[in-house]
Write a structure and sequence with these properties.
This protein is of the alpha/beta class. It has eleven helices and ten strands.
Length: 350
């Protein structure tokens, strides 16, 4: 008798990602499969890659950890885990120690807990996310991990799309979370096609203890309100299938955004003069979606923090191209200034 369908589903999702990681590690070319099959490892090859799971102790990440512990040895991959202690709740250190113990009981090694200090910039959710990813990056570098698995599900993807829609930040914000992201494709999200209930069911049938973060039910947090109030209201008004439709929208938006980003990168050099300055007339001739991507890239290159650069900032800079009336300089985050001078657009730190 095979495993429960929920367990089988999460293991299959992880197995597919591990195959991709194994292929990346042996070929050096992400996403490229050699001769239609995955390369075999031999004793002459470099040591087997290490894959870490980021685990909070919640149902999604515990299901992911259990699947990684099951699948990795079968592919000759070392599997470890890390939990991040944000220090935002009483007893968070004890919770982190419990997660470390659970991961070790699954057979993962190495396993560690990392305490971080959460700042305030961008709000509590964004600050916690920034601290978490900084810590995960450091752990990945220290252990020279081939990848770090994250337990985001299709439900998380739907919430991310709605949050992006509310910000009005364009098609990229509707793209949600990528299956592969981070420097060198460090972060992998195997569960983006699986719903949250499947992960929880997998934990239940395997008798895996899970921890429900009270922040996930706290209406003070935007994502929590969206999860417990917003999405249920949408499903009540529009019927079932909203989560699946939003996740599908994310993938379609990502494909479009990737194509436009490629176009913008290719067009970027053609709109600069010999001194490297942006020529307004050439920018004006481009489609708005391509032009604004070039402007955003130029602002970031000049020192504007990507996370603080919003659509409204780029729209103001774009008006220096499309609605020139002699207006003055535009102030951007990071003390970056954009201004039009003699038919050129100058973006630099002021």
């Amino acid at each position: 008798m095979g495993p429960h369908p929920a367990v089988a589903a999460i293991r299959l999702a992880v197995r597919r990602v591990l195959h991709d990681i194994l292929n990346d590690d042996t070929s050096g070319k992400p996403g490229r499969k050699a001769a239609g099959r995955y390369p075999q490892r031999t004793a002459e090859r470099s040591p087997s890659p290490l894959v870490l799971v980021a685990c909070s102790g919640g149902a999604d990440s515990m299901a992911l950890a259990s699947a990684l512990a099951f699948e990795a040895p079968r592919l000759g991959i070392r599997a470890g885990g890390v939990t991040i202690d944000h220090g935002l709740q009483p007893g968070s250190g004890l919770r982190a120690d419990e997660v470390v113990l659970r991961l070790r009981e699954l057979g993962l090694d190495p396993v560690e807990s990392v305490a971080v200090t959460v700042g305030r910039e961008g709000g509590p959710e964004a600050a916690a996310r920034d601290a978490r990813y900084a810590a995960l990056d450091a752990v990945g570098e220290r252990h020279r991990a081939a990848a770090i698995l994250l337990g985001h599900t299709r439900d998380d993807q739907a919430e991310t799309v709605l949050l992006g829609l509310a910000r009005g930040s364009g098609i990229r914000s509707l793209s949600g979370m990528a299956a592969v992201s981070g420097a060198g494709g460090r972060y992998r999200r195997p569960f983006l096609q699986l719903d949250r209930q499947t992960a929880r069911k997998a934990c239940m049938v395997q008798s895996l203890p899970v921890w429900d973060d009270p922040h996930n039910a706290d209406p003070a947090y935007t994502r929590s309100r969206l999860r417990h109030e917003g999405l249920p209201a949408l499903e009540k008004a529009l019927g079932k299938g909203v989560v699946e439709a939003l996740a599908r929208t994310a993938q379609l938006s990502r494909d479009d955004a990737d194509a436009l980003d490629t176009w913008a990168r290719q067009a970027g050099a053609s709109v600069r003069d010999g001194a490297g300055l942006l020529e307004c007339a050439k920018l004006y001739a481009l489609p708005p979606a391509v032009r604004r991507r070039i402007l955003r890239a130029a602002a970031i290159e000049a020192g504007a923090p990507a996370g603080a650069l919003f659509a409204r900032h780029i729209e103001e800079v774009d008006r220096l191209i499309t609605g020139w009336r002699g207006q003055g300089a535009i102030n951007l985050p990071g003390k970056v200034v954009a201004q039009r001078q003699g038919g050129r657009l100058v973006i630099r730190q002021g």
